[in-house]
Amino acid sequence: MTETQQKEFDPVTFDIIQNALEAVANEMFVAQRKTSMSAIIYEVLDLSSGVLDKHGQVAASGAGIPAFIGVLDKAIAGILKKFKPEEIRAGRSLCIQRSLLRRCDASERHGARLACFP
């Protein structure tokens, strides 16, 4: 196939894949909730989950707090800056400290007034 040719878009296949990715993200959410030792996670559900591509773009999001999904791609961008792609492989867990990512969880101030707290 040359670069000018495009694959035909199949909306049914697209829907099946999208629903499968969302199901994976929801299963991740359930697994985190069931295995967490923190009451904040298993009672308040203060978490979120998502499936991302190798470039850190969100492909599907699961249940949870929408604001967390809104910054997920930015958090992953911070991880991708710290780790080489070949270091990130299936089954590997990466733990990060949010303050190291700077703008993901920082409050914005104008003078003495708090303007935004994502």
Major sheet: size, sense and barrel closure? 2 strands, antiparallel
> SSE order in H/E notation?
HHEEHEE
Low-confidence stretches: 103-110, 114-118
The coarse overall form would be: globular
**Residues in β-strands, percent:** 15-25%
Structural class: alpha+beta
Number of domains: 1
Going across the biggest sheet, name each strand in turn: 1-2
β-strand number? 4
What helical percentage do the residues reach?
25-40%
Protein name: N-methylhydantoinase B/oxoprolinase/acetone carboxylase alpha subunit
Pfam families: Hydantoinase_B (PF02538)
GO molecular function, one term: catalytic activity
Organism: Agrobacterium larrymoorei
Description:
InterPro entries: Hydantoinase_B (IPR003692). One of its GO terms (molecular function) is catalytic activity. This protein has 118 residues and is of the alpha+beta class. 39% of the residues lie in helices and 16% in strands. It has three helices and four strands. The strands form two sheets. The chain has a two-stranded antiparallel ribbon. A two-stranded antiparallel sheet has the order 3-4. The longest helix is centred in the first third of the chain and has 25 residues. The chain is globular and about 50 Å long. The N and C termini lie far apart (45 Å). The C terminus is likely disordered.
Helix/strand layout:
Blueprint: H1 11-35, H2 39-42, E1 48-52, E2 58-64, H3 66-82, E3 108-110, E4 113-116
Antiparallel strand pairs: 1-2, 3-4
